[in-house]
User: What shape does this take?
Amino acid sequence: MCLAVPGRVLDIGEKDGTRMATVDFGGVQKEVCLEYLPDLQVGEYAIVHVGFALQRLDEESARQTLALFEELGMLQEEFGDPWEQAAAQAGADSPWPFADGPFAGGPVSGEAAAPQHAQEEGRP
Assistant: This one.
């Protein structure tokens, strides 16, 4: 589920001709487009959905909403690591689903990722 989450503007800049901001969502910081709220200033709060600031919000309402989302676990759902979330739902101890397989410890790139059976057959 995608939420519209309140966040506090930390800084404002421009990226490729678009007004952008770093926004704090209760400890998680994301880059957000400000084109719909061109007069939003540092320190103000806004409702953000899929990377766009959509509506200005007062600080008290923002704090109450963030506290409620945190209590319900919705901030973790929205901003958390999807691998950790899937592992938690499955009741697994490790966030990486292949903890005991050939890629134990996480994804690998390059030669280390070559399947073992390819090496046994004399292929690189």
